[in-house]
Design a protein that fits this description.
The complex is a heterodimer.
Chain A (H helix, E strand, L loop, with lengths): L7 E6 L5 E5 H7 L9 H13 L3 E4 L7 E11 L2 E10 L5 E7 L12 E4 L3
Chain B lengths: L7 H9 L1 H8 L2 E5 L4 E5 L8 E4 L5 E4 L5 E6 L2 H8 L4 H8 L7 E4 L7 H19 L8
Antiparallel strand pairs in B: 1-2, 1-6, 2-5, 3-4, 4-5
Helix pairs in contact in B: 1-5
The chains are: A alpha+beta, B alpha+beta.
């Protein structure tokens, strides 16, 4: 089945106006290890916002030629930032959310290329 | 969000409790080959947990009382295994090659497989050793 015919929990556009989808099947595949993905408000709120208007975007650490890691800073507590991170496969059409979670660290920093925005 | 103030000493003590907690809760070894991410956690990581980076190599999902509820290693093959070559062969033996984008789960509590037990022991030792190094600089 093509991606366009699959049931989606999110359909939106990225910062370059490319269509991005998050299929329900993909969400179910990741949800056991990603408590964040059990929350519909997270998916339709922070996750969507991160795809639409990220603070910065890196090449993914593991698959730099086909995936991007979108980051949106949520808040800072005791000098420590909290981000929403969304990994997107940009080789598929439409682009396709692989996973999302809320780290307090940017794993890609100094490891892959910054593609968009500023990582201060 | 955690209610306790996170300090280096608290983190070290909590990481040392992981082997006991993992045994009690039946933590499993999960390699998400598609993402290149490794988890050592219950089958389902509980809701109401928050991810905290512990060292450059790994993060832990903590609950609000700062109990560890799962370990995550990003860039497992491209970073962690490069820095810990002792994991290379045993990872291949236990999880196979990365030619399929699958999520493979190994339960070291059920498997009589010697490799699963050895892997679990090696991982627990590595997590504790890294966080207790004299020169360890807490990322949090």
């Amino acid at each position: 089945m093509g991606l366009t015919h699959m049931k989606c929990c999110l359909e939106t556009v990225d910062y370059e106006n490319n269509k991005v989808i998050f299929t329900e099947a993909q969400r179910q595949q990741k949800v056991a290890k990603r408590p964040e993905l059990r929350d519909d408000n997270f998916i339709n709120g922070r996750l969507k916002q991160t795809i639409n208007c990220p603070n910065f975007v890196y090449q993914d650490c593991d698959k730099p030629n086909s995936r991007k890691a979108f980051y949106l800073q949520e808040y800072v507590v005791n000098g420590r930032p909290r981000y929403t991170k969304v990994v997107v496969d940009f080789k598929k059409k439409p682009q396709f959310v692989i996973t999302a979670y809320r780290p307090d660290y940017v794993k890609e920093r100094s490891k892959t290329n910054l593609l968009y925005g500023h990582d201060n | 969000m955690t209610t306790k103030k996170i300090t280096k000493k608290i983190i070290q003590e909590e990481v040392k409790k992981i082997p006991e907690k993992a045994k009690k809760e039946g933590w499993v070894l999960t390699f998400d080959k598609d993402e290149g991410i490794f988890f050592y956690s219950p089958n389902v990581i509980p809701s109401d947990t928050e991810l905290h980076q512990i060292t450059d190599e790994y993060s832990i999902y903590f609950d609000k009382n700062l109990n560890p509820r799962g370990v995550m290693i990003e860039c497992y093959g491209n970073n962690f295994v490069k820095h810990h070559p002792e994991f290379e062969k045993i990872t291949k033996d236990l999880f196979g090659e990365r030619n399929k984008d699958e999520i493979k789960v190994v339960d070291p509590n059920k498997e009589k497989n010697k490799e699963a037990i050895t892997f679990k022991a090696l991982l627990e030792k590595t997590l504790i050793t890294e966080v207790c190094l004299d020169g360890y600089k807490m990322v949090i």
